[in-house]
Amino acid sequence: MPRILYAARSQSVASGNILLGSGPTVINMVVTAPNTSVYSTYSLTVTRTGSVNANLAGLQLNNGELSPAFSSAVTAYTASVSNSVTGIKLKPRAAHAGAVIRVKGVIVGANTYSGNVPLSVGLTTIPLMVTSENGTTKTYTLTVYRQVPSNIASINKNTMDFVANDVVKYQPVTEGPVKVHQAVSPNGDGVNDVLKIDNLDMYPNNEVKIFDRAGRLLYSKKDYSKEGEWTGTLNGLPLAEDTYYYVVDFGAGNPKYKGFITIIRE
Predict the structure, then answer these.
(1) pLDDT tens sequence across 246-260
(2) Distance in angstroms (rounded) separating the CA atoms of residues 67 and 141
(3) Distance CA 96, CA 51 (A)
(4) Domain 56-146 identical in fold to domain 179-263
(5) If one looks up domain 56-146 in CATH, what number appears?
(6) What is the DSSP letter of 158?
(7) Between 3.20.20.70, 1.20.81.30, 1.10.3720.10, 2.60.40.3580, what CATH number should domain 179-263 receive?
(8) Quick one: pLDDT at residue 6?
(9) Positive or negative CA dihedral for 209, 212, 214, 217?
(10) Domain boundaries in the chain?
């Protein structure tokens, strides 16, 4: 808070603290000559520079699990919900109290859920734009995968090596400490540039296969934990943003796990 120095009997004395609002604040000062009614009026305009902080400090969903875990430096996220979920609400939290958050263009109050965002079957991308006090903007995106109805969920079972009457389950897969990350965003920023499978080295005879919606084999790698770094490409060319499917074979005597991953390109 600023203070005004003024002279009182040849001494400089500081005023009390003067509160500053956002933008310009006009401070009026009146100087009166001793023992007279003669005075002069002065004004001082102080402009407070707005914050440039356009980061989010947190993001919660009323359905589904955010992936990867939230970090203000990461701007692209995914989530998966069942087919019965037809909409989702987001509760973003700004890093600076003066920032304004919009979910799909609609302002969301501080630490409150947004309105319901309708979800189509498949992928729905939801933009979140944060505007700082000085007008700086930063956009985050959430891509939500709404599962197809289980009675029509089908992929070429022969190619995918499913047993008869098996149903594809689109959900994050964790086998003990092994976790398949569901998002691949190969944009060179060092975050989710490759398909990550945590602790797969515990199964040295592992094999990872990636398929498209038609069941076409796009990628196959044995001992992925050592040799594999799939970057969302086919024959060196980038694949389109979409949902793809994986099979992780942990080796003889272990079950195969299947699930989906999403390629996100900014």
Answers:
(1) 988 888 777 788 888
(2) 12
(3) 8
(4) yes
(5) 2.60.40
(6) H
(7) 2.60.40.3580
(8) 52
(9) negative
(10) 56-146, 179-263
Residues 120 and 145: their CA atoms lie apart, in Å, by 8
* This prediction's pTM: 0.49
| pLDDT on residue 161 | 43
Closest to 124 (Cα-Cα) out of 70, 88, 73, 169: 88
Closest CA to 205 of 261, 256, 258: 256
pLDDT-derived band at 149 (thresholds 50, 70, 90) equals low
- Hey, is 212 helix, strand or coil? coil
DSSP reduced 3-state for 249: strand
pLDDT of 177 reads 66
CA 109, CA 117: separation in Å to the nearest integer? 16
Overall size of the chain counted in residues: 266
Give the residue ranges of DSSP H helices in the chain: 157-160, 224-227
Q: Which residues have C-beta within 8 Å of that of residue 36, sequence separation ≥ 6?
A: none
Token code pair at residue 53 = 């902080």
DSSP sequence for 63-127: SS--BS---TT--EEEEEE-TT--EE-EEEEESSTT-EEEETTEEE-TT-PPPPEE--SEEEEEE
At 26, which amino acid appears? V
The token duo for 189 is: 């920023």
